[in-house]
Amino acid sequence: MAPTTTWKPHTEHGDLSTKEKNVLPESVFAFPKQRKEPLTDAEHVQNALARFDQVEGVSDADRDLAFANIKAAASHYGVNVEEDDWHQLGKKPHTRNPSHPHRG
Q1: pLDDT by residue (tens digit) across 43-64?
Q2: Of the candidates 54, 63, 47, 55, the residue with the CA atom closest to the CA atom of residue 95
Q3: Helix-strand-coil percent breakdown of the chain, rounded to 5?
Q4: 8-57 pLDDT tens trace
Q5: Domain boundaries, the chain
């Protein structure tokens, strides 16, 4: 059973400074308890998907919630998420990243 999302829309476009991130409500983050991966616009949702497998210090339960939050934010901002489960993330990078070897 998928966890209930905690994400709520709070649109902020562009790069966010540390100061700006610090004043965002927890409900804006994919990982609210850890305040990681803000989901404030489509670009941030795409970044959260691309970096999902790089987030450290979180449990599988945290990842379950984060993926549900990302899917809710993706739906709100019109971002297509092909994966049905967070375990499918990281199999192929969502964005070209030279630090990721090409996986076909």
Answers
A1: 999 999 999 999 999 999 999 9
A2: 47
A3: 40, 5, 55
A4: 777 666 677 888 888 889 999 999 999 999 999 999 999 999 999 999 99
A5: 25-81
